[in-house]
Amino acid sequence: MQLRRKRAYDTPAAADGFRVLVDRLWPRGLAKDKAEIDLWAKDTAPSPDLRKAWHAASDDDWNDFADRYRTELANESAPALENLAADLKQHGVVTLVYAAHDVEHNHAVVLEQALSELL
Predict the structure, then answer these.
(1) I need a surface site. Which of 23, 36, 38, 67 has the fewest CB within 10 A?
(2) Entry's InterPro entries (predicted)?
(3) Distances in Å between the alpha carbon of 37 and those of 28, 31, 52, 76?
């Protein structure tokens, strides 16, 4: 299976395969019918407290955020992560869809790594 990441505001493509929205909140201004989302895995997204802390932090805090998110994925979000991994095994190409502007420093990067370890 191949995992990819893509911003929610980028145009969906057939090459995206199975599209999974990995944000806890629906992306602002994005119509549900145009998003072409196959699964909304909001329970694997960072907790509201962690998300708010990340938005209030500077970019220098990326490693701290990533470590805290990995801890959430290993603990309270572990069942949701395992269920998502099981669902994704049925698909050849999976695209994790997220709304963040920064393509290198966002929770989908960490989630992709965690899923790769399970798959």
Answers:
(1) 67
(2) YeaO-like (IPR052552)
(3) 15, 11, 24, 25
In 3-state terms, what secondary structure has residue 19? strand
Query: Tell me, what DSSP letter sits at residue 12?
Result: P
Distance CA 53, CA 27 (A): 19
Q: For residue 83, give its domain range.
A: 2-118
- Identify the pLDDT of residue 52: 86
pTM of the model: 0.93
Q: Please check whether residue 94 is in contact with residue 18, taking contact to mean a CB–CB distance below 8 angstroms.
A: yes
Q: Considering its fold, how many domains does the chain have in total?
A: 1
Digit-coded pLDDT (tens) for 51-88 = 888 877 666 688 999 999 999 999 999 999 999 999 99
